[in-house]
Amino acid sequence: MAQAPQSIDFDKIRKASDGSITGMLSSGFNEIVMNNPYFAAGGGLMLLGTGLAVARQGVMKGSGFLYRQMLVDLEIPSKDKSYLWFLEWMSRHKHRRSRHLSVETSVVTHDNGAITTNFSLVPGPGKHLIRYKGAFMLVNRERSGKMLDMTSGTPFETVTLTTLYRDRHLFNEMLRDAKNLAIKANEGKTVIFTSWGPEWRPFGQPRSKRLLGSVILDQGIAEDVVEDVRDFLTSGDWYHKRGIPYRRGYLLYGPPGSGKTSFIQALAGELDYNICILNLSENNLTDDRLNHLMNHIPNRSILLLEDVDAAFNKREQSAEQGYTSGVTFSGLLNALDGVASAEECITFMTTNHPERLDPALLRPGRVDYKVLIDNATEYQVRRMFLRFYEGEEELCNEFLAKYRKLALHHVSTAQLQGLFVYNKRDPKAAIEMVETLQNPNIAF
Ligand SMILES: Nc1ncnc2c1ncn2[C@@H]1O[C@H](COP(=O)(O)OP(=O)(O)OP(=O)(O)O)[C@@H](O)[C@H]1O
Ligand SMILES: [Mg+2]
Question: Is the minimum distance from the CB of 419 to ligand 1 under 6 angstroms?
């Protein structure tokens, strides 16, 4: 007969249980588990593991709770305007600790052809610690993996700022500081925007404003245009009440180097506006892009369409040419008509070939003001001479006498500028060299 295993004493169990089932079970459990060294050790370990896991979770939950209660995050995506402002602000902020910097280089080509380069060291991707008004902030600049902003080809980025909950009001103050810094850097400057994919991006560093007086147009022209633009800018209510789109188009036409572009830049400076430049002869500008760009012009900007006649070579965008075909005439008209904005919209167009323009473009609503900016008149020659050689009235007369004798009619103001710049401090040498103006292509 098989005997019960010795280690389990069933009699004892029965006694202890007083015959009840629970008593039997509990004393059985005690007997099997507690008195068994293997079970006891395993159970202990299990309890310990469970305890630790629960504790860990508790700590994690607790820290998450604390994090939520005590810290705040602010995320600035690279799409946002304040993104660049913030990076620039941070690069100048004194109380910061960062070991990763990245460089942003801007190259500016000046009117005289000189090129200057600016390096600004901005915080690179990674974590940085800054102190702002007594509070610590953790700045984390992150690239989001392989995702590319398809429109600009740059990686998507975000900057996340973390600080204590009680300091959250500092975010606002800091962003305001960053914005003010950006505005201050642009004070007295004109920002030039160019198209970058379907969006407008500042081109190089903001330029110093060009003074209106530095562009010498024929008598009264500049004054009339400025007055017209000013009148337009103060007539918002008038347009809105009559339901007329609040926009005005200007066309400056004339030979190369007569000061069209320079005048528009000076005008923008005078009005405290920025300029969005679009070159319609640019190859990869399509109708769609043009339309999009014209409907997303930054505030307080003049839209400048250069070489507007370039759109007139083609009436349609053929499929084979596709991407590289440039803007079509109908595309330009649609874009001009489609600009629907509550803000004012000032469009300046320039061309060297007004005769190529289709009358459809010139109808009011698209072009409301046309003006010829021609080669230099005697009035301009005199004013330019005296601007370069102040007070030299006599020499100016001498210069003009020679100029008249040569019967020069097709001298551009750019040519005159070239001659005067070459003879910066020597008006007599300029007089000697008047003949050179006969050849418009001469390079000094
Ligand atoms: N009327 C002017 N007064 C002062 N400077 C002028 C004038 N015209 C031209 N210039 C000078 O000549 C250069 C070229 O001028 P700008 O680019 O304005 O000419 P433009 O009329 O736009 O020529 P294009 O038709 O080829 O675009 C500039 O450096 C500018 O300073
Ligand atoms: Mg020009």
Answer: no
Residue-wise pLDDT for 193-225, tens only, equals: 998 888 888 888 788 888 999 999 999 999 999
| Cα separation, 188 vs 276, whole angstroms | 17
Considering the domain boundaries, does residue 426 fall inside one?
yes
Atom of ligand 1 nearest to the CA of 373: 21
Q: Is residue 443 part of a domain?
A: no
Q: Which range marks the domain in which residue 47 is found? A: 12-69
Question: Which contacts of 425-432 are long-range, i.e. CB under 8 A and separated by 24 or more positions?
Answer: 427/385, 427/388, 427/389, 427/392, 427/395, 427/396, 427/399, 428/395, 430/385, 430/388, 430/389, 430/399, 431/395, 431/398, 431/399, 431/402
The domain boundary residue, chosen from 185, 218, 245? 185
**Is the pLDDT assigned to residue 382 strictly greater than 90?**
yes
Nearest residue by C-alpha to atom 16 in ligand 1:
259
Q: Is the pLDDT of residue 77 over 90?
A: no
* Average pLDDT of the residues in 293-315: 82
Cβ contact 161:76 at 8 Å: yes
Around ion ligand 2, which residues have CB less than 5 A away?
260-261
Is the CB of residue 377 below 6 angstroms from any atom belonging to ligand 1?
no
Q: What is the CATH number of the domain that holds 338?
A: 3.40.50.300
Task: Say yes or no: 268 and 386 in one domain.
Answer: no
The CB of 111 under 6 Å from ligand 1? The reply is yes
Of 58-67, 209-218, 225-234, 402-411, minimum mean pLDDT range = 58-67
**Are residues 225 and 280 both part of a single domain?**
yes
